[in-house]
Amino acid sequence: MPNLTTSDGTVLFYKDWGPRDAQPIVFHHGWPLSADDWDNQMMFFLGEGYRVIAHDRRGHGRSSQTDSGNEMDTYAQDVIELAAALDLKDAVHIGHSTGGGEVARYVARAEPGRVAKAVLVGAVPPVMLRSASNPDGVPMEVFDGLRDSLLANRAQFYRDLPTGPFYGFNRPGAVVSEGLIDNWWRQGMIGGAKAHYDCIAAFSETDFTADLGRITVPVLVAHGTDDQIVPYETSAVLAVKLLEKGVLRSYLGLPHGMLSTHPEVLNPDLLAFARGEDFASETPVTP
To answer: What is the CA radius of gyration of the chain?
Structure first.
């Protein structure tokens, strides 16, 4: 399996499929998952002739179970080192949830020529946590509850979250996929408890406002309006206003994990954006 050892000795697992001279599409996963969460999209873009890459964030999946560096600056530095090692140029970086935050911080700091476009899917920017400057954010008590649940019984917690709000399976009439729930649990449990615990602060408390303001490449902000994890109105709607070339694509009634529940809806839009097709409309898309 391909691995990269970073400058601080962390070993990062990554996948790198497709022609090495094709345009790279780089996928960044959410918490507490792994590169496997993007398998559907990787196979889709591979079939369209792209080079597709995804890594397990430090402390997640098959990468080192780090007890330090589990914060956004280091996550972004890891991507800088991965992009340099693989010599990625003109890449499209697509991040989901926490991975969207990682994309924002990385793209804001990337070397010229490394990034062509970016996509934030159900992503955490600009900032999740409620504060005096972000009064509509999510209360700290919610994130403390995540930490308490992780410490009390991580295995059960990682069953409850995908069974409920992550995929919207708690909504009336939802078509529940036990396979998705099992795969979420599998990915979560192979990561490190310490890194996952630390990452809750990373995705909830990091302010990406300055990062979004520094990004000059086109960015697609794709978000489900029924996202119960990262609320639509206080994330996507605010994030797109901070981007120089941001376009909002709303998905009416779709959940946080829409990349897995509705890939047939999301994938064509990701492809169209990568190809430079028009995304001027902010009209919600009904699946």
So the answer is: 17
